[in-house]
Structures are given as C-alpha cells and as structure tokens.
Here is the input.
Amino acid sequence: MSFTTLILAAGKSQRMGYAKAWLRFEGQSFLERILHAAQQSSTTSISIVVGTDDNSPWVTRRDVEAILPDSPLCPISIVVGEPEKAPIDSIRRGISDLPPNRRMLLWPVDYPFATAELIHKLELSFDDEADHIARPLVNNHHGHPVLFGRRGVHELLEHGADSGAHEVVHLNAERLIDIPWDDERLAVSINTPEEAKRFGVEIPHSVD
Here is the structure.
C-alpha cells in the first residue's frame, strides 16, 4: 500500500522552551528518529513542515537540511509552514505539497517513539479499497502517528476540520481502526521539561 508521511515540526514548543525536533533520545534527535523509522516503512515520500528561516531558534529549513541523510531511502521534501498559526494550518500546508489522492501518515514531531513495525501494522489494517483511519491504541489511550485514507486527507482540507485533525478522526467511527500497542510513550506528547525527564529525553543546549 502506498502512502506518504507528513512530519509536523513547525511548532514553537513554548512550554518546553526548546524546539521539540531537536530533543534527543538515545543519541538521536526526535526528528532523526522519526525519519529513520519512516524510511524503514513502505512510505513512498516524506514531507517535513518547518518554520520560516527567521524563526530561530526554532526548526527552520536550514536546520533540517543539515541533518537529512545523504542517500535517503525515499524522497524527502521540506515545506515552510507558519508556526504562529494552529496545527491544522501546518497540516494543510503540508498536504498541499503531497502527491494527489494519496494516503498519509500524520506524524507530530513530539511523538518520536513509534517504530517501523508499528507503521507496518497500521498499513496492514487497510485493504486496497477501504478508506480507513488507523491509529495506535495504548491502554485505552490513542496515540501517534495516525494513518489517514484518501478521504480523510481530503477532509482535513475542509471547513469541518478548522478546529483540528481530531474532527476528521472522529467524524465516522465506523472507519476507525485501533491497533493495540504496548508502549505508553506513543500516547504522550512531550510538552514540558518534566515530561522529557520522565522519559529519559535530553534537552540539548544547542542544535547539532
């Protein structure tokens, strides 16, 4: 099954006080971990939504270009978003860069713990024609990333999603697929230094 991966990395991370993309776990930044896992899946392309180059010290195009692999396993593009707006605006900006009529794995950068194995499970929950939305389920809590079918991707662009992607996720319960998973970190957004410490995440002093 073909799909593209959209990584949301444009947020200003005000509660953390540091760009979440550059938080580190086991020697890798969050963004590097996500890129690695995504490239081990069957995604056909990856788009990363970032802030503008005058948003330093937040995530910029130049920052991301510096850490991209020399020989990626699939095409990787960088899309400049608008961090001062709502997350749905970054999602829509990213979708505008995607190939048409494509399923999409939506991956916020503050959820870096999903594996290629989980992504494969999300993929397998779809069949060739069905238009589902698949997400990990951890102890009755839903996590990230979330795989949207073609219809769901289109709905993210409509007014019904103006308050966020959750409006699309909950629009039709019959198309939702929950994939049970045994890693509580998939359902926790790392928003504060206290949460980072709880999960062994390092807050560096500067971007590598």
User: Anything to note?
Assistant: Residues 3-198 form a domain with the Spore Coat Polysaccharide Biosynthesis Protein SpsA; Chain A fold (CATH 3.90.550.10). The chain has one domain: 3-198.
